[in-house]
Amino acid sequence: MTLRIRTVADLESLLTRRRHRPRFNRLVLDVKGIAETDARAWEAKLSRYYFACGCEVASVVMLLALAGYLVALTVAPGGLRASTWRDAVGGIVVGFSAAAVGKVAGLLHARRQLRTTIRSLRAEVL
Asked: Angle CA(46)–CA(36)–CA(22) in degrees, nearest 5?
């Protein structure tokens, strides 16, 4: 399903909660007075932030946290050889926790960027 943006109200509707609207898989900017190339560039930017899932940030945060955990285990007395199953479970907990924190951070960042992009588009075009 395609979301067509024709007015400021359509643009502002991107900030409403998704639970209260149908699912879209594509976003099209259909505003008179804007060049086709500019419209496609704005569409790409809006789509990037609107459809963001936070996975990119989550994966980076998780990898960094797991690398830090491995370094901590390595420099601990006895090194990696002294590691136990408890340390392995700790690594799993660290990984999942870091992924969750990264996902939330990625979603918040995308939301903030979407809001900024909407403001910029509204000021420049609409």
From this structure: 40
